[in-house]
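Work Package 4 report. The design task specified in the project plan requires that, given a folded chain encoded as C-alpha cells, an amino acid be chosen for each position. We show below one input record used in the internal validation round.
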C-alpha cells in the first residue's frame, strides 16, 4: 500500500471520531477530474516529478459526471502524449464523413453542400469518442505519474488565507441528515491545502462562480452565455450504422420558438450512435422545454432513419459554457487559477471544448512549474498565466471564434449563419471588429402571457420518452436523507412571482423533472424540488429568471453515473 493510501485511511479514521477538521498539504490541488484538471495534473508531473498533486472528483468515479458529444480534436493530446496511440488512448473511431442539415420543418430538411460548412466545423483527423472513457484513461496516466486522484470527494468550499488568497478547498461532510443533524454515518470533511489550487469543475462550477464574484474576475468581460446539451446513446441496426459519420443540424424544432441551438448525431463504434440537442439558454419563450424539443427532433425523418429499430442505452444532460473569448473572465487570482469550462474556454464555432480545456490545463501547469522554480519567492498570483495564454494557439483559436455568440444572439438564424460563414471563410476569424453580447441569458425570458404556448406530444416510449424514465437511464442517485443542494434565496418567489409571470419555467428548463408545481388540496400551489433526480446539469442555476436558485454541491459520489458519455 502506497503512502497516500495510508494517509487517506488515517484521515477517514480521524473524521469518524468527530475531531477538528484535518488537513493535508500538497503543492497543487485540482478540483475536478475532467479533461482540463487531469491534463494539468499530468503536465505538472511531466515537468517536475517532485511536485505533489492531488485531484478531487465529486463523481463516484472518474468520468461519472462527464458528458460531451463528442467529436474530439487530438491537438492538445498530441502535445501531452505524442505517443498516445501506443499508450492505448481510447480514440478508435476516426471521423469519415461530415454532414450538415438545415431542418426546415418537422418532415423536411436541406442538406448543406460541403463548401457552405465553415472549415472550423470540418472534422478531418478528428475522432468520435466517449469523453468519460477518455477521462478515465487520463486518470490512469496521471496515477502512473503518482498523482493522487480521489473520486467521490466533493469540494464544498474554498479555504482562504488571512490575506484573502486561496489556501485550498474543503471536502463536504458526509452523513448530514435532511434536518441538518449528524447521522450515525457522519464523517467530517477535510481540508486540502496547496500553494496553488486549480478549479476545473466544468461549466458553472459552484466554487468557480464564487471565485469569479469574490475576485471580480468578470468585471471586464461580457456576461457569460450557456446552452443546455441533452444526449442519448442508442444501439441501432447494423444496416443503419455508418461508423465515423458526423451529422450536425440547425433550425427545426428550436426555430419554432425563436430559440437557438442545434442537434448532433455521431456514429460511434459497435453500432452505437451518440445523439443530442443543444438549446441556447438565452431563449425567451418560458413555455419552451429543451427536453421536449429533443424528443421532437428524434422524430424528424433525417434522425428517425437511423434510430428506427434501435434501442436507447443511456441518457444525460449538462449545461455548456459558450460565451467564448468575450465572456472569458480573468483566470488568475491569488492562490489559483480557473481552467477549462470553469472559465469558459470552449470554441463555439467548432462546437468543441475538450481540446481547449486540456490546453488551458497544460498552460496552467507550465505556469505553475515555472513559478515554483522560484521557491519561496513564487508569487501567489500567477499573473504570467495571462501572457502564456495569449501566446498560445488556444488564445488564437478562441479569438477567431469570438463573435459567434454575438452573431447568433443578435440576428435571425439564417442571417447570423451567413455572417459566421463570411467571418470564418473570408476573414479567417479575424474580421476587424468585435460583436458584443451583453444580455445575460436569464434576463432574456419574456412573460408567459406574451409568448405562444407549445403543445408537446406525449412520448411514444419507442423513440421519444418522458423525463422520469430518462433520469433512470442516467443512473442518478443521491442519498435521500441529506440537505437539498438546490437552494432557494427566496422560498416564496417560485409561486408568488415566477408562476404568475413565467408559468414557473423551472418545470420545463430542467431536463430531469427536478422542479414541479404541485396543487394542494385547498387549491393553492407549492413548489416541489425532487433533488434526488438532479443530474448536475446546472441549468437551474443559470436560467432562473431572478437568479433565485443556487446550486451547491451535494454529498460526494451523488448524481449521475454515466458509464461512457
Amino acid at each position: 500500500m502506497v503512502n497516500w493510501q495510508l494517509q487517506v485511511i488515517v484521515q477517514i479514521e480521524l473524521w469518524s471520531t468527530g475531531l477538528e477538521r484535518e488537513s493535508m498539504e500538497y503543492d497543487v490541488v485540482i478540483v475536478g477530474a475532467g479533461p482540463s484538471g487531469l491534463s494539468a495534473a499530468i503536465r505538472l508531473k511531466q515537468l517536475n516529478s517532485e511536485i505533489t498533486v492531488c485531484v478531487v472528483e465529486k463523481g463516484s468515479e472518474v468520468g461519472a459526471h462527464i458528458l460531451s458529444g463528442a467529436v474530439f480534436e487530438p491537438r492538445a493530446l498530441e502535445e501531452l502524449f505524442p505517443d498516445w496511440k501506443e499508450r492505448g488512448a481510447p480514440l478508435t473511431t476516426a471521423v469519415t464523413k461530415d454532414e450538415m442539415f438545415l431542418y426546415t420543418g418537422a418532415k423536411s430538411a436541406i442538406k448543406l453542400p460541403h463548401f457552405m460548412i465553415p472549415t472550423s466545423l470540418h472534422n478531418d483527423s478528428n475522432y468520435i469518442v466517449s469523453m468519460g472513457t477518455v477521462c478515465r484513461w487520463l486518470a490512469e496516466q496521471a496515477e502512473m505519474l503518482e498523482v493522487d486522484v480521489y473520486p467521490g470527494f466533493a469540494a464544498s468550499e474554498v479555504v482562504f488565507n488571512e490575506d484573502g488568497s486561496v489556501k485550498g478547498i474543503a471536502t463536504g461532510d458526509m452523513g448530514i441528515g435532511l434536518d441538518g443533524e449528524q447521522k450515525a454515518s457522519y464523517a467530517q470533511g477535510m481540508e486540502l491545502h496547496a500553494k496553488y489550487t486549480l478549479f476545473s469543475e466544468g461549466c458553472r462550477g459552484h466554487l468557480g462562480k464564487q471565485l469569479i464574484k469574490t475576485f471580480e474576475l468578470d468585471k471586464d468581460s461580457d456576461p457569460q452565455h450557456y446552452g443546455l446539451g441533452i444526449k442519448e446513446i442508442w444501439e441501432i441496426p447494423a444496416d443503419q450504422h455508418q461508423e465515423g459519420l458526423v451529422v450536425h443540424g440547425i433550425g427545426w424544432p428550436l426555430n419554432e420558438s425563436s430559440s437557438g441551438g442545434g442537434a448532433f448525431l455521431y456514429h460511434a463504434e459497435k453500432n452505437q450512435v451518440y445523439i443530442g440537442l443543444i438549446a441556447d439558454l438565452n431563449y425567451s419563450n418560458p413555455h419552451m422545454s429543451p427536453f421536449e424539443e429533443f424528443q421532437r427532433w428524434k422524430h424528424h425523418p433525417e434522425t428517425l432513419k437511423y434510430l428506427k429499430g434501435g434501442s436507447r442505452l443511456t441518457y444525460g444532460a449538462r449545461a455548456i459554457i459558450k460565451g467564448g473569448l468575450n465572456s472569458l473572465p480573468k483566470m488568475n487570482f491569488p492562490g489559483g487559477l480557473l481552467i477549462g469550462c470553469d472559465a469558459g474556454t470552449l470554441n463555439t464555432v467548432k462546437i468543441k471544448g475538450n481540446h481547449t480545456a486540456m490546453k488551458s490545463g497544460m498552460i496552467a501547469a507550465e505556469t505553475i512549474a515555472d513559478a515554483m522554480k522560484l521557491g519561496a519567492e513564487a508569487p501567489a498570483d500567477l499573473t504570467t498565466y495571462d501572457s502564456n495564454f495569449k501566446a498560445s494557439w488556444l488564445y488564437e483559436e478562441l479569438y477567431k471564434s469570438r463573435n459567434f455568440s454575438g452573431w447568433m444572439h443578435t440576428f435571425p438564424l439564417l442571417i447570423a449563419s451567413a455572417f459566421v460563414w463570411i467571418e470564418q471563410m473570408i476573414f479567417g476569424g479575424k474580421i476587424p471588429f468585435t460583436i458584443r453580447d451583453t444580455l445575460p441569458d436569464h434576463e432574456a425570458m419574456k412573460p408567459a402571457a406574451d409568448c405562444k404556448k407549445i403543445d408537446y406530444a406525449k412520448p411514444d416510449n419507442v423513440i421519444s420518452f418522458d423525463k422520469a424514465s430518462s433520469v433512470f437511464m442516467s443512473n442518478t442517485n443521491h442519498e435521500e436523507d441529506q440537505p437539498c443542494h438546490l437552494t432557494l434565496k427566496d422560498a416564496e418567489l417560485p409561486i408568488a412571482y415566477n408562476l404568475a409571470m413565467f408559468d414557473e419555467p423551472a418545470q420545463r428548463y430542467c431536463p430531469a423533472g427536478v422542479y414541479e408545481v404541485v396543487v394542494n388540496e385547498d387549491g393553492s400551489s407549492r413548489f416541489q424540488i425532487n433533488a434526488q433526480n438532479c443530474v448536475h446539469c446546472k441549468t437551474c442555476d443559470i436560467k432562473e429568471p431572478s437568479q433565485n436558485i443556487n446550486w451547491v454541491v451535494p454529498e460526494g459520489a451523488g448524481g449521475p453515473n454515466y458509464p461512457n458519455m
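The chain has two domains: 23-70+133-173+182-221+329-391, 92-128+224-322+412-565. Validation will be extended to a larger panel in the next phase.
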